Backbone:
């Protein structure tokens, strides 16, 4: 019916407040960008762009996830 619902802001952070290091265990596995999967602990809002791209691809693909990995290693194999 054309509704968009946003959810899961459990890892939200205030924008513009400098932080030295984040956790690499963020974002649902299927939507994590490669740099975070490789263990990056310093990242920007670009991880959200990757996640949004994965979600749009999933929507365009009839609800089938683009990279439905079962582990970090499997996820990286599916991406590359």
Residues:
């Amino acid at each position: 019916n054309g509704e968009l619902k946003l959810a899961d802001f459990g890892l939200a952070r205030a924008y513009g407040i400098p932080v030295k290091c984040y956790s690499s265990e963020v974002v649902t596995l299927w939507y994590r960008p490669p740099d975070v999967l490789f263990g990056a602990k310093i990242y920007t809002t670009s991880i959200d762009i990757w996640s949004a791209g994965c979600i749009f691809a999933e929507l365009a693909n009839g609800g089938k996830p683009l990279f439905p990995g079962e582990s970090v290693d499997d996820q990286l194999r599916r991406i590359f």
Summary: The chain has a mean pLDDT of 84. DSSP finds three helices and no strands in the chain. The helical segments are 34-37, 46-60, 72-79.
